[in-house]
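TL;DR need structure tokens for one chain.
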Amino acid sequence: MTPYLKKSALFPAQIFGAPHPELNLVVVIPAYREEDLITSLQSLASCDQPKGAVEIIVVLNDSEEDTKKTKKENQTMYQQACDWGLTHSSARCKFHVLYHSNLPARHAGVGLARKIGLDEAVYRLTQAGNPKGILSCYDADSDCDKNYLVALENHFSQKPKLQGCSIYFEHPIKGNAFEEKIYESIVQYELHLRYYIHAQRFAGFPHAFQTIGSSMAIRVDAYQQQGGMNRRKAGEDFYFLHKFIHLGQFDELRTTRVIPSPRISERVPFGTGRAVGTLVASAAALTTYAPQSFVDLQSLFKAIPDLFKIKSAALETKTANFSDAVQDFLTLIKFPEKLKEIQSNTTSLKNFEQRFFRWFNAFMVMKYLHFCRDNFYENEPVAEAARWLLKEHHQQSVTKRHQSVNLLHRYRKLDKKI
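>> reply
TL;DR here they are.
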């Protein structure tokens, strides 16, 4: 057993039987009242088989406060999934189903379910003698391209130092499975997700990556070194991945695709399911962070070479060139004191930049954007902001005739090539 498992695993190993000696990839799926679980499992069973063996671990879960009806639904799904797994498992691709009922209400949710499954995956890959195996997160209502498993294996094998990656995704934006309002809403929300990452890159933020729970993968050793998954009820993916991103060995896998569901969900306080539900209920256009917030932030990041060795006496003159929004935010976060600390612990511009962005990280960027939204620049319709960024950052010709769905296709095309 590894030191991480001894210290941080919540349960002993739960899957009996030795793993395949060539086990290289474990896909973890949290599940709660999932009507589409079998369909999701079938999407993985239909994938091309990679060179290494694969295991898929489902973690059905409910809390001590869930109703008898919910628990009965989970029990029924547990039996169905177990039966399905038995008939669809092979020597090199096995399906396991765990069921954790009556989890503490304080922690029960997607983060805890992912942690239970990922920790179990660590047990399995450790038993197989593969400390650099791959842990992939998926969702119980997702689909994927047929090359999903092969693409994951190839991506990590071709990059031995890689610790983790974000996987390209596309929500379904048309069809008969959902109401038209849901498709219209997911178009806006996915456009917001893509705009947000591109806008950060426009500003010069080096750690801008998508952090979608169904579309991420990490090596076993890196997972343990960074303390594993958290138990957050929402946003667990954002907090989890940003423990790896700033370390530098993180990138994007664009040769395959995860297809997350656009469905409404009430279990999480924020995220895709909640956002779609709010949009459908309000019938209002989605708004996002104003482009000017990123323009202002760009001025700060461009000044990093000057900030490297700037003297305290000259700092006030330098920051006076920034916008009022940036100046006020820097005052709020006590920038002069932090800058002095960073300067005193670095001897080169490269190290200064690394240390600066470990401090001014994705959480600080979000804090800054919320500060701007609340005090300087109101949110703008996501289509307007997305059109602006395509023109200013990607030099594309765009007019108001280009609506959200057209804009989303453009951003998807960009994300496949970057």
